[in-house]
């Protein structure tokens, strides 16, 4: 069950969210992905934006619970990175402005290992006052 060095799904997600020119590398793998932006003082709105994009772009199948469930856990893991473990925004007077990418593929040498999903978030977090934010990044990976 070795990871393939050419197919590191987390690395591809991070590079893809930081630099859109890297999306061609994800396409070369034949993997599904979607990109977008979300900003809010409400973490539920950010989660919903990512989930909606993944469903609309057919990265996950909306009628399959395990796919939605896997995506949710990857989003929450990535959010933990952005929020430094406290997945709260408006209730503690902070807001985010994020770019996101959702990548789906098999990062293993064996096809039988199945698909995994990676969510990378990059942007700003801080007080809801322009100029009082700082950069943040998060990554979540989960099996489907």
From TrEMBL:
<dbReference type="InterPro" id="IPR023552">
    <property type="entry name" value="Regulatory_HutP_bacillales"/>
</dbReference>
<protein>
    <recommendedName>
        <fullName>Hut operon positive regulatory protein</fullName>
    </recommendedName>
</protein>
<keyword id="KW-0010">Activator</keyword>
<dbReference type="InterPro" id="IPR036482">
    <property type="entry name" value="Regulatory_HutP_sf"/>
</dbReference>
<comment type="similarity">
    <text>Belongs to the HutP family.</text>
</comment>
<dbReference type="GO" id="GO:0006547">
    <property type="term" value="P:L-histidine metabolic process"/>
</dbReference>
<dbReference type="GO" id="GO:0003729">
    <property type="term" value="F:mRNA binding"/>
</dbReference>
<keyword id="KW-0369">Histidine metabolism</keyword>
<dbReference type="GO" id="GO:0010628">
    <property type="term" value="P:positive regulation of gene expression"/>
</dbReference>
<comment type="subunit">
    <text>Homohexamer.</text>
</comment>
<keyword id="KW-0805">Transcription regulation</keyword>
<keyword id="KW-0804">Transcription</keyword>
<dbReference type="InterPro" id="IPR015111">
    <property type="entry name" value="Regulatory_HutP"/>
</dbReference>
<dbReference type="Pfam" id="PF09021">
    <property type="entry name" value="HutP"/>
</dbReference>
<comment type="function">
    <text>Antiterminator that binds to cis-acting regulatory sequences on the mRNA in the presence of histidine, thereby suppressing transcription termination and activating the hut operon for histidine utilization.</text>
</comment>
<keyword id="KW-0694">RNA-binding</keyword>
